[in-house]
């Protein structure tokens, strides 16, 4: 069966779709068969990213590694048939969840083999995972963390494997080092309490926003004739490589 990667949280603006696209494309470039499914039926950022990529490649005559675009099925259970269709031809299936709580997103968490939760590196986004006192003491898990716990319980009852949950520190800045240390310390403490791993994320970079209209990722730049990458782009590629290594997916090495 395909290994299912779910990218989700219940807060918008954390870089879920950018993360989804770069992970899916990196796996495709490494020779894996990858499916992508956007569960945000309104905004569809990940779905449009994939469609932009297909359109750009066709227009420019480029043979870009391309995840298979999945489609939700009509009816009361739109997810299961969509997953079954993708599993027939994919090694990995990546599900991008909306930045809010929906029944579809909740269903996706119960089928996740790997759960990747991007968050902006601040205590505003930390509230997604746990409630804190003004002094920084953890009072208890948030509603989202409780939902992940319920998904784990459901998988255990069904005899499925555990969820490998990673929290991705996204949009790391070069300033506010004191705040970064405090957030990092709080995440390290919380990870032991509610059971997730902390993963390296992406720094804030303009190029991520520039690539979206063409459906491109950092790994596609040389296919466009860009021989000399800027230091920022080289650093961003290394961030992606570090993320792929940390995910520790079956049969995957960061060979790009």
From TrEMBL:
InterPro entries: DNA_Partitioning_ATPase, MipZ. Pfam families: MipZ (PF09140). Signal peptide: none annotated. Coiled coil: none annotated. This is Division plane positioning ATPase MipZ. It comes from Paracoccus marinaquae.
